[in-house]
Design brief:
The complex is a heterodimer of chains A (250) and B (268).
Chain A (H helix, E strand, L loop, with lengths): L1 E2 L2 E2 L4 H15 L9 H13 L1 H34 L1 H16 L6 H8 L3 H25 L3 H9 L4 H38 L4 H11 L3 H33 L3
Antiparallel strand pairs in A: 1-2
Helix pairs in contact in A: 2-10, 3-4, 3-6, 3-8, 3-9, 4-6, 5-6, 6-8, 8-9, 8-10, 9-10
Chain B lengths: L3 H13 L3 E12 L2 E12 L3 E5 L6 H9 L6 E6 L2 E2 L7 E4 L11 H5 L1 H5 L4 H14 L15 H14 L4 E5 L7 H17 L3 E6 L2 H7 L2 E6 L4 E6 L16 H14 L5
Parallel strand pairs in B: 3-8, 3-9, 6-7, 7-8
Antiparallel strand pairs in B: 1-2, 1-4, 4-5, 9-10
The chains are: A mainly alpha (250), B alpha/beta (268).
């Protein structure tokens, strides 16, 4: 972006909002919003603590497993739905319902079914991420150029070769888009899971800090979480741009 | 075992009536109540180029895709070297109107893709591919990607891919319709050289009368509603001509006029 002829570095808006936060915090308008500088100071303190590292490990484990299952189940399901009309008719209504459903309301049911442990948290994370991944993989497969499929067939591609050498790659831009949005939703899923199912990980830290009115600590953990979600999303966005050159030319 | 005399007799017979590589026998194709092709029979002589020419909707691409094994006929059958076609096979290679290149793969991988699907190892298939890349005039572009090439160059990639699998029959679906006029003329000249040098049977779908007359040994004119072969024209003297003087040849001009006269009433 350009302002008064000066080229602003990327994410300049974050600096402005950071200043707003700082000023707002210093004015002591609300107890719940400490100045950004205090939050940052606390952040480094918190990161070093054993409680944080344990929480990070627990959250990362649940998050990674949840995303793993969402991707490994979601992409093939979406591709098969895009290819098979019958399967599509059977599954699409459910996918659409779960995509827009308030999944948080389902979490107590999961607790009854799968207990209060890590398993339920992972399933919650997967449920938050998987639907958009399925829908995008499906959309990606459905827009593949017909002549590309005829080309694969006419040169004698086996079903597996057609899938792994043509379908997957041709749908990759959409698939990656779906995974990126799914991962962002998984961050929500893992925190909600940790708060509602068992108080572990970052969920436990939020609970602890909020209940003890340690707002600087609370915000510090939140900032760390945002930063991690943002980094993962940007990383996937980068991969997406690497395949975008052919997205318009299939 | 045939006796020497019978072999001689057989050979005279082939020079009189050329050896047939592909034949369509009473082929029909229905899409629901719509008859795309009705009881169509046509023979394609070996080593020659046959054009399927006709107005849009006459089923020429449908026929080509049935020959390729990509579509199943509702009735009748296609025989390639006397064997009925049941699906795509290594004896036929297809050149697509919109090129159908893998946009994420380099030129060399695209050209070698048919061989890759056949399980030929990487170094061998890339050797073959780079030879055909040179043949179609794309040397130096082996590691470019399709989106970096012009339309004409992309179709050269599609052509090299079809040539590299070394099929006996080359099926071309309006291969030059998506490239500009100058490129198309160059392509047509190159195609004449290809037909002369490669001992392959070419089946070529086009809607351009001039293009059909210029490149063909045999032109099958297809008419719609119901689709049928209305006429087969075999230019006799054009093959011996130099590729640059064909368009001034009286026979060329006469055939173009004759075909236009028979097609004009079908053009809305």
């Amino acid at each position: 972006m350009q302002l008064f002829g000066i080229r602003l570095p990327a994410m300049s808006s974050l600096i402005i909002w950071g200043i707003v936060w700082e000023v707002f915090g210093r004015l002591e308008i609300s107890f719940f919003v400490p100045p950004l500088s205090a939050v940052v100071t606390t952040l480094f303190e918190v990161i070093g603590s054993a409680a944080f590292q344990k929480a990070l490990y627990e959250t990362a484990y649940a998050f990674a497993s949840g995303v793993f299952f969402a991707v490994v189940i979601g992409i093939p399901t979406g591709i098969m739905m895009g290819k098979n009309r019958l399967l599509d008719e059977l599954l699409l209504p459910w996918v659409n319902i779960f995509l827009s459903a308030p999944l948080t309301a389902l979490v107590p049911v999961l607790m009854v079914l799968f207990g209060f442990g890590m398993k339920s948290i992972i399933i919650t994370t997967t449920l938050f991420a998987i639907w958009i991944i399925i829908l995008n993989a499906r959309a990606g497969v459905m827009q593949i150029n017909r002549s590309l499929l005829e080309m694969a067939r006419s040169f004698g591609a086996s079903p597996w070769a057609a899938f792994s050498k043509v379908y997957f790659w041709a749908a990759l831009p959409e698939i990656l888009g779906g995974v990126r949005i799914g991962v962002i939703r998984a961050v929500k899923g893992v925190i909600i899971g940790q708060l509602l199912i068992s108080i572990v990980g970052f969920g436990a830290l939020f609970e602890l800090y909020a209940n003890n009115f340690l707002m600087e600590h609370f915000w510090a953990v939140l900032v760390v979480l945002f930063a991690m979600a943002f980094t993962i999303s940007e990383l996937l966005g980068y991969l997406e741009r690497r395949v975008a050159y052919y997205a318009a030319k299939r | 075992m045939a006796m020497p005399q019978t072999e001689t007799v057989h050979e005279t017979a082939t020079t009189a009536a050329p050896d047939i590589a592909v034949s369509a026998r009473n082929v029909s194709k229905n899409y629901g109540p719509v008859e795309a092709l009705k009881d169509l029979s046509l023979e394609f002589p070996r080593g020659q180029l046959t054009s399927l020419l006709g107005p849009s909707g006459c089923g020429k691409t449908t026929l080509l895709k049935i020959i390729a094994g990509l579509l199943e006929p509702s009735g009748g059958d296609i025989q390639v070297d006397g064997k009925a076609v049941t699906g795509p096979g290594p004896d036929r290679a297809f050149v697509f109107q919109d090129f159908a290149l893998l946009p994420w793969a380099s030129v060399i991988r695209n050209v070698a893709f048919g061989l890759e699907l056949r399980g030929i190892n990487k170094s061998e298939r890339e050797d073959i591919a780079s030879r055909y890349i040179k043949d179609v005039g794309l040397a130096g572009f082996e590691h470019s990607f399709p989106h970096e090439l012009s339309g004409g160059m992309r179709q050269r990639v599609g052509l090299a891919r079809a040539l590299s699998v070394d099929a006996d029959v080359l099926l071309m679906d309006e291969p030059f319709s998506a490239v500009d006029e100058q490129t198309r003329r160059k392509f047509q000249e190159d195609l004449l050289a290809l037909v002369a040098n490669e001992n392959k049977t070419f089946i070529f779908v086009t809607h351009s009368i001039e293009e059909a007359v210029y490149v063909s040994d045999q032109i099958a004119i297809l008419l719609p509603r119901p689709s049928r072969v209305s006429d087969i024209i075999r230019p006799t003297g054009l093959r011996e001509k130099d590729s640059t003087s064909i368009r001034r040849d009286p026979e060329y001009l006469d055939i173009v006029d004759e075909i236009w006269a028979s097609l004009r009433s079908y053009v809305e």
